[in-house]
Amino acid sequence: MFKIPEHQVAGHKASQGLLGPLIDDSGHFYKPLQSDDRGSKEVAFYNQLSSNTEIPNHIRKFFPLYYGTQHIEASDGSGPCPHLVLEDIVSSRANPSVMDVKIGSRTWYPTASEDYIMRCLKKDRETTSLPLGFRISGFQIYGSEESGYWKPEKKYVLGFTAEDVRVALRKFASSNSSDGLGSEPDCAFAETVYGGSNGILAQLLKLKAWFEDQTIFHFYSCSVLMMYEKEPVLKSESPCAVVKLVDFAHVVEGQGVIDHNFLGGLCSLIKFISEILNNLPHNSAEVL
Q1: Closest Cα partner for 47 from 67, 22, 71, 23?
Q2: Rounded to 5 degrees, what angle do the CA atoms 38, 39, 42 make?
Q3: Which domains are assigned to the chain?
């Protein structure tokens, strides 16, 4: 009934006897509740999100659907344990290209322990989180039936420089993605994936407009998940490109203050993607 997600690009993975998320054939994603108070915090966030009438419907679409919690057999063989039951946001896509971008120059939350803060601060300094306000946590890009996916190792991705990030974002919307970072991205799909009224940039700008006003939550260590498919399975039912917010174990009350940490990182990502679109050759766009 349950299986390991094939298209997970970041986070803890359920492989080799480790605890991680599972999926089923009904479009559900089962995320094990994290230890200490992180799991209960994420449950509390989803419950608050579900009941808060101040969040507009067009913003709710950026969050995975939440179906409560359920005890199922853990992937590490430790027996039944509680899992968040969420929408499997890639279940309707046969060959999705997916990128997980952790937003914010600061990934630790105010009440965290000193040890946790130091560990987060070390990673923020060693990656592009501090200089750029975001870092790519992982990604996969589908090339073709012959070449399959380019899915670089986590350590390689976390070692990205600002220029590597720029190239990876261009590769994400290119037809020559299977060549890795070594070749010049052709950005063949950038106009369709990033541009247009339903593209990734337009969706990120909607999120930005909300974050410029919302003071309900502060989203620490939360990710923007960007995905698209070159040949969408359900062309008439889903847009080519989709943006979702994921990972809410470290969300805290906004207390009437704008979340400048998340907003700053989001603006930085928007700037990088805008630059890609602004520098496209006139005839580079290709219909997916």
Answers
A1: 67
A2: 85
A3: 22-87 (no CATH), 96-279 (3.30.470.160)
